[in-house]
Every structure is written in C-alpha cells, then in structure tokens.
# Entry
Amino acid sequence: MGKKVFISHSSVDDKLINIFIEFLNNVGISNDDIFCTSISGSLEGGKNFVKQIKDNVKGSKMVIFLMSERFFLSYFCLAELGAAWALNQNILPVIVPPISIEEYNNTPLIGVQALNLSNVNFANEFHSNLVKKNVIANDDTLDKDKLFKEFNSEIRNEIKILRKDSRGFYIARLLDNCSRQTKQIVNQPPIDKFLLGDRFMLNNETLWRLNGLLDIESNPNINEHWILIKGIKLSSAKLKFQLGELLEQQRNQKLFTITNFYELP
# Structure
C-alpha cells in the first residue's frame, strides 16, 4: 500500500524539498504519509530500492514532481517520472524556474497541467490540488493566508540559489543582456575590458551573469553573481561547472572563473 503523497526530486534540491514537507505537515500530512527519499525511513533497509519506489508510485494518492534543472539530470528522477506516467493518474508536476514550459512539454507529461513555482499564487493552487485529489480535507480552521504567504516567501528565496551536486558542480543559465548595469557595478580594470559589446566579449573572454546566486554566502546585499569564461565559444547558454578562483570583488559583487565544465543542451 502506497502513501498519500509521493515526491520525486533531485537530492540537490533537498532544501526546497524540506520547505514542501513542512507545508504538507502544516496542512495535515505527516511524514508517515509521505514517500520521499529525503525523509529518513522512507526506504526500508534490506528491501529492493527500485521495487519500493514502484510500489509507492502505484499506490499513492498523488505523485508530485519537482522538475528542476537537477531533476532532468537525474536518471532516477526520470525513471520515477516514467513509472508514474505509466502507473498513476494522480500526477502533479511542479516546474521549478528556470525550467520553461517548453522544456516541460518535451517530457511524457505533456498535456498534464503543471504548476509553476514562479506563480505568485502557487501556494493557493498547490493546496487546492491537494484538496481536489482528496489528499487532504479543506480545513477551515487553518490560517491559510499566513501559511500561504510564508510558503511562497520561502520558495522564492530558495529558487534563487544555485546549489552544488555531490561532485561539486553547479548548473546555471548564463545571461548576457545587462551590459549597462554591469558597467555600473564593475567599472575598474581589469574587468572593464570585458564589458565591450553586447555580449561582453573581447579576445575570446566572456563575462556572464548567472540566473541565480551561488550557495557560497548569505550576504543580503549581493543579488547577482557573475562568471568569467575564458577561451570558450559556447553553443549553449547553459553550463554545468565548478568554480575557480575569485577574480574581483567590488560593491558586494563577486566574479569567478570556472574550472571543469560541461555544456548542457
């Protein structure tokens, strides 16, 4: 017999998962009713790992997919997606920015209505889906306004952070459309020479703004991170990379070079 909720996610997104689990606890779903590999005890020792996942996908009232960049790079996440698609009709996909609806539509779940974490009403929509699928009852004693506001705030803060995987790699999209803003933030040599042209390119060196913040600090004054890529002609604006040394710091902005990297489609 499966549990009420099955959550499929990348292990790198554990902090985001913890926010979801806390919300589920607050609306009446205990950890005992959640199958999630981030919860201690979800997987029973001595039993076949894949069979436990299959049985819980099949028997759960709702299968939630947290579809982040890391999700799409996990073989187990993709296997769980395929199993749920084949075995369970109660699927709730959650798109985690910067994943787009176009990327989501390239999965077997195309046509299944998905929620998006960037939606300002996400908490309300998520709760409504739990009620509609009879996973929870609509409890009028809950202070929903306060609960939804806190949930949305925690989510927005978390999805800004780019986290390392178990090998120390980050995944980021590279943004190149803020040359004027960059010129104001970083305006002294040696960085200044990289800001020429629409793509900040000179002598095969490029300065890129990342789509989120690296998980290296908690300085509230830092709202952007930049990366310098040397001698690389990108065919994609999406990388999996490891950090090198800090190149320059000004006005609470940090720029980094990279070491090992892979281009992603």
Notes: The CA atoms of residues 50 and 77 lie 12 Å apart. The radius of gyration is 21 Å.
